[in-house]
Design goal:
The complex is a heterodimer of chains A (304) and B (297). Chain A is built from 11 helices and no strands. With 304 residues, chain A is an all-alpha fold. Chain A has one domain: MetI-like fold (Orthogonal Bundle). In chain A, helix 4 crosses helix 6 and helix 7 crosses helix 8. The radius of gyration of chain A is 24 Å and the shape is globular. Chain B has 2 domains: 63 residues, no CATH class; 213 residues, MetI-like (MetI-like fold). The model of chain B has no long low-confidence stretch (mean pLDDT 83). Chain B contains 14 helices and no strands. Helix content of chain B is 76%, strand content 0%. Classes of the chains: A mainly alpha (304), B mainly alpha (297). At the A-B interface, helix 4, helix 5, helix 8, helix 9 and helix 10 of A face helix 1, helix 6, helix 7, helix 11 and helix 12 of B.
Chain lengths: 304, 297
């Protein structure tokens, strides 16, 4: 009996993997997005080691050069900035900071927010109310002010920017996780677990958290893109990452003064932000479509 | 009601203490060569020598009399400065939101009519692109094309309708992108309902089925999302206002933080919180207007 069930489970699991792959191949847009994200991840992993020197090499002769395939070879393909540094090399090197900050901030705020939200949902009553009250205050707090204060008190470094961004996104995860738990808490299987003598901690870890996870993670995929936009916005206003560190947002900000003579300095880093957030959004909406059985069926019918 | 009042009070307290952690205004307002004597007098004049709790007590008692203090930079009531900046931001936000709602309803309903059709695909990509684009980059790109390149539109400033084009186009992208998805989803759900079949059976025209029957039932999620987006605009849009040189509340906020003009920062936070509070009431009224079930409860 158990053996058969296991075999079935195995079959379904491998079948599902194959099915996801098929859905992906049939949806060219999602496939391109996935490839793009993999490319940027690779750039983030090896970029600074590979092109770290190239990104800071200045040249008086090659200032504000338009995109070309000249003496510098591939390095000039996106032009050079006001100090004659290669835009392409700088974009690739900045990938690590840009993606790193967005991922670190969104993952830590998801983890902490989900834990707090689950507690607020499970332990309703006064504690839950106080948590939600505090989260409301955080949500209505102007994030710009918070960024300024943290960067004044601490040093304006990548790590502190991560803290600011993670903190401002916390209320959203608290809200999502709590709503999910409030609903799950009333389900029969949770009652059953409790009747069988599970402790609160066990009920949360074994029964509630796994059920709430998919919703929270779906939310996270959208949020990564949002956090990336927030970081680039803060860096653009000059209260995010500080030179000599670079992110795509900071590159756009620095290029602002040279807009009249060299459009490429602002255009390409911004395009990178746009393409990456777009890819994340496309993939996340694709994943939502495929993981929903009802829509997956429609999807199959349409794409078959 | 009571809960949002407590949130407001907590927010104001927090801002009071946090904004004072950014440093002493004397360092910014007095020349570097200022003597210790001058500094003491400056601090005395603005009440910065007192213990922070005494300062807070003074602030709270002023607030209770609806007095938000004077701006250090301009030497006049902070509330006046804030109420001068607010109309600029609100006008921009209103024009943007109205256009975004109209456009997204037109396109979202059309996309929902033939899901997975060519128009739906284009609309989906467009809306995702709109929501993904960093607005400062769109602003700079549009400036370099239309202002620097073709010299058609002004780069920044306020004035006639021509000054509105670029800021509105930049600001509309994100709410438009988000709303199209919501409209499409809500209308698709409504179109699946039996009452739509009834409407078709009695011979209603397709246009009236879409825009009257389906849209009315789909309107609640649209209002909810549009409301959330509009609340984001009440804070003013710092980036767009500073790029296009609009003297709005977002620009005022960042400037006051940088200049350590504590009274103005506090005034912006208080006025914004009150504005959001009253806006939420307006949204509740719109719900009641659209949905009889809410009205009669």
């Amino acid at each position: 009996m158990t053996a058969i069930a296991q075999i079935d489970d195995g079959l379904i699991a491998s079948d599902r993997k194959v099915a996801y792959w098929h859905f992906l191949v049939r949806d060219p847009l999602a496939l391109i997005s996935l490839v793009w994200i993999i490319v940027t991840l690779v750039a983030a992993l090896i970029g600074p080691e590979l092109l770290g020197q190239e990104a800071v090499r200045m040249s008086l002769k090659a200032r504000n050069m338009s995109p070309r395939f000249g003496d510098g070879g591939w390095m000039d393909i996106l032009g050079t900035d006001s100090l004659g540094r290669s835009i392409l090399a700088r974009i690739i090197v900045a990938t690590r900071n840009t993606l790193g900050i967005a991922l670190a901030a969104s993952v830590s705020s998801m983890a902490l927010g989900a834990i707090i939200g689950i507690i607020a949902g499970y332990v309703a009553g006064r504690v839950g109310k106080i948590i939600m009250q505090v989260s409301d205050i955080i949500q209505s707090f102007p994030s710009m002010l918070l960024a300024m204060i943290v960067l004044y008190i601490l040093e304006p470094r990548a790590f502190n920017l991560v803290i600011v961004l993670a903190f401002t996104r916390l209320p959203v995860y608290i809200r999502v996780a709590r709503a999910e738990v409030l609903e799950l808490r009333e389900r029969l299987f949770v009652d059953a677990a409790r009747v069988m003598g599970s402790s609160s901690l066990m009920v949360i870890l074994r029964h509630i958290a796994p059920m709430a996870a998919p919703t929270v993670i779906t939310y996270w995929t959208v949020d990564v893109a949002f956090v990336m936009l927030s970081e680039s916005g803060l860096s653009f206003l000059g209260i995010g990452i500080q030179p000599p560190d670079i992110t795509w947002g900071l590159m756009v900000a620095n290029a602002r003064n040279y807009l009249e003579i060299s459009w490429w300095q602002a255009f390409f880093p911004g395009l990178m932000i746009m393409l990456t957030t777009l890819s994340i959004n496309i993939l996340s909406s694709w994943a939502r479509k495929v993981s929903d059985p009802l829509k997956r069926w429609k999807f199959k019918a349409v794409s078959a | 009601m009571v809960e949002s009042f407590f949130s407001l009070v907590g927010l104001v307290f927090l801002v009071f203490f946090l904004v004072r952690m950014t440093g002493n205004p004397a360092d910014l307002y007095l020349p570097e060569s200022a003597s210790q004597q001058t500094r003491m007098e400056f601090n005395q004049l603005h009440g910065l020598n007192d213990p922070i709790l005494v300062q807070f007590g003074r602030f709270a008692s002023q607030l209770a009399r609806l007095d938000l203090g004077d701006s250090m930079r301009e030497g006049r009531p902070a509330i006046d400065i804030v109420t001068e900046a607010y109309p600029t931001s609100l006008k921009l936000a209103a024009v943007t939101m109205i256009l975004a709602v109209l456009l997204s309803i037109l396109i979202g309903v059309w996309a929902a009519y033939r899901p997975a059709g060519p128009f739906d695909r284009v609309a989906t990509i467009l809306s995702l692109g709109g929501a993904s684009a960093p607005n400062f980059w769109v602003a700079l790109t549009l400036i370099s094309i239309f202002s620097v390149g073709f010299r058609l539109l002004p780069t920044s400033g306020t004035g006639g309708p021509i000054y509105w084009v670029l800021p509105v186009v930049v600001l509309i992208l994100q709410p438009f992108g988000v709303l199209v998805v919501v409209v499409r989803q809500a209308v698709m759900t409504a179109l699946d309902s039996p009452y739509i079949r009834t409407a078709r059976a009695k011979g209603a025209r397709e246009a009236s089925i879409l825009f009257v029957h389906a849209l009315r039932n789909a309107s609640l999620p649209i209002v909810t999302t549009a409301g959330t987006l509009a609340i984001g605009f009440i804070n003013g849009s710092v980036i767009v206002e500073s790029i296009f040189g609009w003297p709005g509340v977002g620009k005022l906020m960042i400037h006051s933080i940088l200049m350590r003009d504590f009274a103005v920062v506090q005034a912006v936070v208080v006025v914004t919180a009150v504005a959001i509070f009253s806006f939420n009431i307006v949204i509740d009224l719109i719900y009641a207007l659209l949905d009889p079930r809410i009205r009669y409860r």
